[in-house]
Write a structure and sequence with these properties.
Structural class: alpha/beta
CATH topology: Metallo-beta-lactamase, Chain A
Mean pLDDT: 91
Number of helices: 4
Strand order of the largest sheet: 1-2-3-4-5-6-7
Strand content: 25-35%
Order of helices and strands: EEEEHEHEEEEEEEEHEH
């Protein structure tokens, strides 16, 4: 298996890929981000769900080889996006594995997804695949979601969380409609008994039962717009 791929559980994997939009110094500025971004694969009941996939082109044998092996024998494959700007390699992955691209209905109206094939929107707080619940992030206007994997008490997130060097932080998007609504939503996650948060940007946070409470105690991360 590729060193870029980490198996977190028997049916849960995360891999990283250098983002093509990253530029030297982006990880040093305030609100910056690391070059490598994360994607997640989860398999349950014969369905493989691939969240925010990024592959380094057609010649990325490391990741394509991992994906080909992971989906072999699957009944179906689902590609799930946390946000419209995380389209990334979703069209190529969906085409290769005859998959639907699931995205919240608000995000589906974004110009970034106009003309993209295989897109099937869903409404808030819906199960989009076995064991995968899409949760609409409050306080935002773009239809960003986080995916809850109850089997592993895990949450896969876009910019609403950032895996900083000193631990998980809440992300305050520049397009916030309501800071109060965002933080009320984040605090409400405590009801899910989460122990693991897998942000797209930054490092995983396997902090145990206090993962959300600890994130709220740290200063927020303020990205400079959608990062991809």
């Amino acid at each position: 298996m590729s060193p870029r791929v980490e198996q977190l559980a028997p049916n849960l994997w995360r891999w990283t890929t250098p983002h093509p939009s990253w530029r030297a110094g982006d990880d040093e500025r305030e609100g910056g981000w690391e070059q490598d971004v994360g994607s997640v694969l989860y398999a349950r009941d014969g369905i493989v769900t691939i969240i925010d996939p990024l592959v380094a082109g057609e010649d990325d044998a490391e990741v394509w080889g991992f994906l080909d092996t992971a989906v072999r024998g699957a009944v179906a494959v689902v590609v799930a996006l946390t946000a419209s700007w995380h389209l990334r390699s979703a069209p190529a992955v969906a085409e290769r594995y005859d998959a639907e691209i699931r995205v919240h209905e608000i995000a589906a109206r974004d110009a970034a997804l106009r003309g993209v094939a295989r897109v099937r929107p869903f409404e808030a707080n819906a199960e989009i695949a076995p064991g995968v619940e899409g949760l609409l992030v409050a306080g935002l206007v773009q239809g960003e979601v986080a995916y809850h994997l109850p089997e592993h008490a895990a949450l896969v997130a876009a910019e609403v969380f950032h895996g900083a060097a000193d631990g998980l932080r809440v992300g305050e998007d520049p397009a916030l409609a309501s800071v109060d609504d965002l933080y009320a939503w984040v605090r409400s996650l405590d009801r899910l008994d989460l122990t693991l948060v897998l942000p797209t940007h930054g490092r995983p946070a396997p902090d145990g039962p206090g993962v959300i409470r600890e994130a709220l105690m740290r200063p927020p991360w303020r990205p400079e717009g959608p990062l991809g």
